[in-house]
């Protein structure tokens, strides 16, 4: 048995191929796991827990089936779905975790996060992030009509995509000193995160010795997940049925 980790699926009705791959993953690999951790950006956008479409219904039911079969599901918010709240958790059965969570897995503490807080050189995004995580901003957004919330989210995604295309690659990646800081502060030698869409295993020099940073892959052209057990970890990939679909 092992614990599974996924991130950056960006599920939406516009990409039914990714949703189908996710459902298959849940019904096969995840059902055999000790637990499933979702490290953010499960959805391409989240307009509020009162929003529901075919994709959302499928995801809720898939999670509920897992939990009902004694496979716990844990969720950390991403930069696309940070408005997921208690109603979604209640209806799907998932457990919401803090944005930086240290969990004990197979005898070692592991730091889990989405990964956007590590990209400290992206000043414009970090400024927006600080504002969008305040209670007053979220309260205002969620008080708007659902159609207006969706339009605002769509507009923001379009602007974000255009801005991202103009930024240097190093700005979009993690800041090494921030990685070292959060791992040292948490007292861990293993960090797992997503967000950057650059799956890899990195060695990190820490005050307590050598550590590792594992980056999960996105699901735009492949399904990507991490398995962790008492023997170590492995990154896995499988092509989507329509890998040539545009994101």
TrEMBL record:
It is a peripheral membrane protein. Keywords: Cell inner membrane, Cell membrane, Hydrolase, Lipid A biosynthesis, Lipid biosynthesis, Lipid metabolism, Manganese, Membrane, Metal-binding. The keyword Manganese applies. Pathway: Glycolipid biosynthesis; lipid IV(A) biosynthesis; lipid IV(A) from (3R)-3-hydroxytetradecanoyl-[acyl-carrier-protein] and UDP-N-acetyl-alpha-D-glucosamine: step 4/6. Its EC number is 3.6.1.54. Belongs to the LpxH family. This is UDP-2,3-diacylglucosamine hydrolase. It comes from Corallincola platygyrae. The lineage of its organism: Bacteria, Pseudomonadati, Pseudomonadota, Gammaproteobacteria, Alteromonadales. The gene is lpxH.
């Amino acid at each position: 048995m092992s614990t599974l980790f996924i991130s950056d699926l960006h599920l939406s009705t516009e990409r039914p191929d990714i949703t189908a791959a996710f459902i298959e993953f849940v019904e096969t690999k995840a059902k055999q796991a000790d637990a499933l951790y979702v490290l953010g950006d499960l959805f391409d956008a989240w307009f509020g827990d009162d929003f529901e479409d075919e994709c959302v219904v499928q995801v809720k039911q898939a999670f509920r089936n897992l939990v009902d079969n004694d496979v716990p599901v844990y969720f950390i918010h991403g930069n696309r779905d940070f408005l997921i709240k208690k109603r979604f958790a209640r209806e799907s059965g998932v457990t919401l975790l803090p944005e930086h969570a240290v969990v004990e897995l197979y005898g070692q503490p592991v730091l889990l996060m989405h990964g956007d807080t590590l990209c400290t050189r992206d000043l414009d995004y970090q400024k927006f992030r600080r504002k969008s995580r305040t209670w007053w901003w979220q309260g205002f957004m969620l008080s708007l009509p659902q159609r207006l919330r969706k339009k605002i989210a769509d507009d923001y995604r379009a602007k974000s995509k255009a801005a991202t295309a103009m930024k240097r690659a190093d700005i979009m990646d993690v800041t090494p000193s921030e990685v070292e800081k959060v791992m040292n502060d948490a007292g861990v030698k293993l960090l797992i995160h997503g967000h950057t869409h650059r799956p890899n295993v990195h060695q990190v020099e820490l005050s307590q010795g050598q550590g590792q940073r594992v980056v999960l892959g996105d699901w735009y052209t492949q399904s990507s997940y991490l398995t962790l057990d008492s023997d170590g970890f492995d990154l896995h990939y499988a092509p989507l049925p329509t890998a040539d679909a545009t994101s």
